[in-house]
Amino acid sequence: MLKQSQMFIPTLREVPSDAEIASHKLLVRAGLARQLASGIYSYLPLGLRVLQKIQAIVRDEMNKAGAQEMVMPAMQPAELWEKSGRWEAYGPELVRLNDRHNRPFALGPTHEEVVTTLVRDEINSYKKLPINLYQIQTKFRDEVRPRFGLIRCREFIMKDAYSFDTTQEGLDKSFQDMFNAYTNIFTRVGLNFRAVEADAGSIGGTGTYEFMALCEIGEDTIAYATEGNYAANLEKAEVVYNAAPKQDASVSAPEKIHTPGVKTIEQLTESLGVEASSIIKSLVCKVDDRIVLVLVRGDHELNDVKLKNLYDATNVDFASEAEVRAAVGAPIGFVGPLGVDGEKIDIIADNYVQDIVDGLVGANEADYHIKHVQPGRDFQVKTYTDLRNITEGDDCPRGGGKIAFARGVEVGHVFKLGTKYSEPMGATFLDENGRSKPMIMGCYGIGVSRTLAAVIEQNNDENGIIWPVSIAPYHVHVIPINSKVDEQRLAAEELTAKLTAAGIEVLYDDRLERAGVKFKDADLIGLPIRITISDKVNEGTVEVRVRRSGEAVDVHVDELISYVKEKLAVL
Fold this sequence. Notes:
This protein is an alpha+beta fold. The chain folds into three domains: 41-238 and 405-456, BirA Bifunctional Protein, domain 2, CATH 3.30.930.10; 255-385, YbaK/aminoacyl-tRNA synthetase-associated domain (YbaK protein, Alpha-Beta Complex); 464-570, Rossmann fold, CATH 3.40.50.800. It has 13 helices and 31 strands. β22 and β23 (436-438) form a beta hairpin. The model has no long low-confidence stretch (mean pLDDT 95). Pfam families: HGTP_anticodon, tRNA-synt_2b, tRNA_edit.
């Protein structure tokens, strides 16, 4: 019999000073986790039970989908990452170390290189494919700013899976199987989520979806259709170009105007009385080692992921002040496309720039701008394409009405990798005709510890956590109001034993604390059902209270087990 007095559940009354969001506050206050260092946590007994239940759901759905569990090393030789091209490309988030022989290693943030090498060395025939391998393991990323408790950590628990197929059609099936499994997993753990189109980022690949838990503290913006099923994260969402009606193009010749100290869009609109939509924002970007001049409308924001994908680049950043001056001869804030040599510097623009007929640009001279500018007449653009962030009210790119925004936390991600890793790492197979072909891969990740935090973020009130039954550390909290009263203590022990024998997980609060302290801790820990044993037990009844609704009824002890089972089945 699990007695709370003997368990390590260090609850706190005060809110931790470094906790900014509900899930972080409650993880610590309810005694589920403790921080060892920035972004590094210990999982205490209650927190571990929740993690184990999430993992059990993940395993169940992955196994049903035909994936096989294994465990790979966290410590990975640098040469694997060099072979895939990611040793430098992954950046400072990769935790690097040398062993005693000065050989470089990484602590794995993910395992594409390791699993590809493993499968390459063990499988060489189409007869042994397809295969899908997964693991649940601690991962490491040296986050520049760990925050929000388990939402963004440097050490975290992740489920990662990798599929290997012989054809694109096979990959499509593996991908869909994983997409369906993820939908089942996040439904079963009790999350309100959306699957959204996403960019593959440093992992690479196409056909990428993120599973986003919807909550206001989410670091990602989700663009979704007000009608239909379309959803994408902000960096991926496509912008529909609706060309403006042709206007009278008889615009005055370009005219240089003095704008001392006026650099920003806001300053220009205020000082000149122009609309932001008529300003052409000129951004000097460094795309890998190449300088590119990017033009977007003044009321729009550049989407650097779209720019990166346009050039198939590894890195995109804004050029430094010195690099801007070297490229166009002007300080940041006064850059424009007029006079820029398009043979030396690519001039590319978002689609909506071409509709501007009377624009304002920087003059490539400090404290000056040029008005009455018209694209095509006064300067030439190499490429018009979708380069901006989508905005609320834009048309849905799939015909689903207008776009609206929501916030979300990424809890899962599925990728179609194709041959991104199999080709450079030599993972090939012989087809039925004896020809060597690269394996076609997919990868699929779930942030297990982040899912725990996301569930708390969506399921809490001012008193504490409200656990979904599927992952609650225990189903029922049995609390005698006064453990010193023999009748209450004995009844609590007997009922705990009967509930446990019936397959119901029980936490029995036998502590010699005041009833108010017990009730506060019970609400804080947030088990689905609380059974309170008072003097009424002498009449054969106990109080059963549902944590989520607050509904409380007196139930006869002879009917308690059936009543609790019925409640748990519908919560």
